[in-house]
Structures are given as C-alpha cells and as structure tokens.
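Sorry to interrupt, but I need a hand with the structure work. Can you supply me with one protein entry, sequence and fold together? No commentary is needed, just the two lines. Leave the record below and I will have a look.
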Amino acid sequence: MPDIIQLLPDAVANQIAAGEVVQRPASAVKELIENAIDAGADKIQLILKDAGKALIQVIDNGCGMSLTDARMCFERHATSKIRKAEDLFAIRTMGFRGEAMASIAAIAQVELKTRRHEDELGTCILIEGSEVVSQEACSAPYGTSISVKNLFYNTPARRNFLKSNPVEMRHIIDEFQRVALANPHIFLTLHHDGQEVYHLPSASLKQRIVHLFGNNYNQRLVPVEEDTTIIKLHGFVGKPEFARKTRGEQFFFVNNRFIKDAYLNHAVLTAFQELLPEETYPLYVLFIDIDPAKIDINVHPTKTEIKYQDEKSIYAIIRSAVKRSLGKYNITPTLDFDQENSIGHLITPKPFEEIVQPSIAVNPNYNPFANEKRTQEREIPFLRNTNDHRQAIPRNWDTLYEISKKDEVVQHLMHEEPTIPVNQQEVTKGSEKQFFQVHNRYILSQIKSGFMLINQQAAHERILYERFLQQLQNHSGISQQSLFPQSVTLNSSDFELLKELLADIRALGFDIREFGRNTVVVEGIPADITNANEHELLEQLLEGFKNNLAVLKLDKRDNLARSLARNAAMKSGSRLSVEEMNQLVDQLFACQMPNVALNGKPVISTVTLAELAERFEK
C-alpha cells in the first residue's frame, strides 16, 4: 500500500493560513498598516475601492526594504521582528509571526514598491496567488507602497461570504480607528472611492479622539492616569451621561496593541457602578504599559487576546484609577469639602491688605414707637377721633357691598373630561369600557373573569413595531416635514451604516439626504413620532439597530422597525386620558401578537376572581 501522507504545496498552505489571518478586507488593512508602523513611518495613507474588495493600497514613508527583503517578505514565517523563541516574550512590535504578507499574496494580486533611504532605485514585485509574476528595479519614493487588488479572486467561496460594501467599510473603519487611537503621533489619511473619509494630523490623544469621533466629544472625556510598579495606565473615560447602548466606543490597548478582554472591561464597568443608566455602556480609551515578559500575546492569530501573569492586580488598579478620576473631576459626589473644587472657581481671591472690616452705623436716639400713632392715623383715617360719629363712618361706605352683587366668573377648562359616577362605570360594550391608569405605568380594565393589567409602554412598542414593519414592506411611511431642517453629523462608522439603511429609513417616513462628509440633513420624520429631536432620534435609531444586530441577529428590516418602535414609544410614567387609553387598547388588540412585548415578555397580565378570593381568604 503506497504512502498517503504528503506535504502540501506552499500555495495551498498559504491559502489555508489566509483563512485565519485574512478573514475580510479589514483584516488585510490591519496587517498592512501595522507593518507600516513597525517600519517607523510617521505618515501613512490608506486608499480603498469597493470597500477593499477591488483595491487596498497602503503608502508609508518608513524605512523601506532592500531587493532581498522585498522578495523574502512574501515567504511564510519570514519576519524581521523576532529571531528566537525567547523574543516572543519581549515583543514591542505589532507583527511577529511572518504570516500576513504570505497569506495576502496567496489570495490576491499584490504589487509592492519599496525603496530605502540610502538606495537610488527601488524594487517593484508583482505576485498573483503566491506566484511571482515579475520583479524589477523601479523609481519610487523612499518607503513602501503595497497594493492588494481583487481580494479572494482565486477563492470565490470566500469572496461570496463577504457582505455589502457599507458593512465591509464599517469593519475597515473600526480597524482604522483602533490603529489611529494607538498612534496619535502618526499622520493618517483614509480615502474611499476617491473621497477623503479621514484626515488625521499628528496630535495628542485627546485631539485624536475628537478628530475621530467628532467635536462634541471634547466635553465628554475624563482623563485617567496611574503609575504603579505593575502597570502604567493612562487614557480617558467618558462621562456617565453620554453612555450608549452599544459597546462600540470601548478601547483597551496593551503596549499600544488593541485587545479585547471581558475581565478588564468588567473592571471599568464596576468603577461606573450606580452612575450609568440601565443597559448602557461608557466610552473609554485606556492604555496599559506593561513589561512584555509578564504577558503572552501569542494566543490567537488576530493577536487581540492576551494572557497576564497577575490579572487580579491589574483589575484592581484599573478599577481604582477610573473610580478616582470620576471622583476627582466631580463626576461622583464627595464628602471631603476641603477637596471639593466645584465651587472654588466662584470665589475670587483677594490680597490680605485689601480686606476691610465691615462697619455698622447705629442711631442711639432711635425710638421705633415714636411714630406709631401718626402712622396708624395716616393709614386708617376714620379712627382719628372715635368720639366723633360723623368722622368714624367713611364716605361711600355703601359701595363696599356692590362687589357682592356682581355675577360670579366661571373659568371653563379647555379639555375637560367627563366624570362618570362609579355606579355607572360598568358597561357591556367593549368600546365603552372604562380604563384606569395605575402609577402612570399600567392600564387596568375590568373583565368578566376578573381584571387585566396592560403595560402601556410595551403595548405602544408592539403597536408601533407592527406598524413600522408594515410600512417597510409596503414603502408607505408618511413623513411629517420639519419647519427648520436639521443637519446631523455622525461618526464615519455610523454614517456608513446610515447609507446602508437609507432606503429602508426613508420607507419609514424619514426625509433624509446626504450633505457633505459624514453629514445628513433631516427634512422630515415619521408622522407617528411627535416632539422628537431629529439628532437624538437618528442616533438612537442607529444605536438600537447596532445593539439588536449584536444580540439578536435580526433581519435588517425587522431590526430597524424594532429599534424605531422602542425609541418612539411612550415612556413609562406618561399620563394618559381615558380616550387615549381606550385608543391604545383598541390598537393593541388589533395587532397580530398583542400579548408579547418586543423583549419577549408579556404585555397583558390577568387576575381572576378566584385568585383574588384565594388571596383575601389567606
């Protein structure tokens, strides 16, 4: 029997490795930009076409490569970052495995142009599917330019799994933001289909956050600083009132490498305990500087997971540092009035020699009872001489009684609701049933078997959800035009998401058009929504959509209808008139699923007479 185990060809092995390293265009963008950072570049340009499917080009002004290095970088496990196994525990660079370039070259058409500072000519290499097409000298600026064209062109099954351009672009923006936050000293630009998405000059960390997420983030940041023998911690956390319903703006960096760690994330959330609204998450951008020998980053191909030697100490340091910063900047109240600086700026310091003791003038001859008689006579003239009956009775005394002869003025209420006696409230017709509101949260109604309680917020959410879902299917949403159109500026990731959902959002009744980079103009909102702020409504709609997408994996239209219904529904505590309660109940029972709320919990709870009798008998 012949041998059946064979060594795979390099091209096949590279394609298998690419399945772990390069999962989508964003993965290739991450690897190429990190290589540019490791090359010492302080200016990096990222150029994309079709969300990276047609072209990914990274241009840097780093150290460049020689002819031999340019050819060697496409070999598997070829790297300049480490030399021996011990180097894995002293890594300060982004890459170290030597798999990225070989994996990208195995599934795309790659063009590399590079030149070192000391060389007169550079090197140009063309590779398609791990096969070198050409290699020649060329004229090139110092640094490196890598163009990745037609990603997954030779693996059509992988290409078919790619999402739409807006979805892939959002993943690329996420990777770009992580690199930009970790390296605020590097000038970065991002162009997509000929349009500039980001232009980030070299700046401080706070300025970089503002450039990435918007000018309104300037007032949301609280600095965090801690220096211990175990770690050095610095960065920013967001104020509690600006917390969001998604975890999108949470960044941990260990030695300038972005990581995902639920344990450290719990440390930050614990520091915000009792400060955040329910089911919201704070913004944080935190950097941990630690000895590389105390961590292991060779855990996952994406290098986003790290093992620590002393996790509990790091947890405690992060928690206490964030909590102290929130107290120091008066986000949390303090009882130490010596350190309370919230009123310190209201007191203007004055030199000691200019302080003058206040003086009080006192009249020792003042008699407060001297003018009492004259004042009394002046204010009540008919009491001057009580012996004179002609003077004691004032003139026109009979006019005092004219006010009693005037008709009483009755003030009518604008929306007066009829009051129905208790003995007349029990009727048989469903449309004439009387409803009572309990603590402005529940609607109570009597039924034959007892009574039922309706959660008014959950009921309104169910009504709006089914209505919006029908409007999305029929494209029948009615728009209410705004008197003054509002311009709304979003971050790049949310703007790409909005462009993806724009057709369905318009079907709901929104009148929106694009207006420049990352900005839209809202000229109308759905007619079912009243007294809404366009900016808040749009942001909450996108936040709810992202939250549902991460938790429930819903269909796009179902997700959109669910998100808008939750944001547009009346909130718990809203007072309703009898007519409004009647209308709400009628619309609820006209729904397809009136008994189930959007979160899967019941909308209606019934209590029978037998249950009441049993409870009172006890």
The two ends are 84 Å apart (CA to CA). Confidence is low (pLDDT under 50) at residues 334-348, 379-390, 411-431.
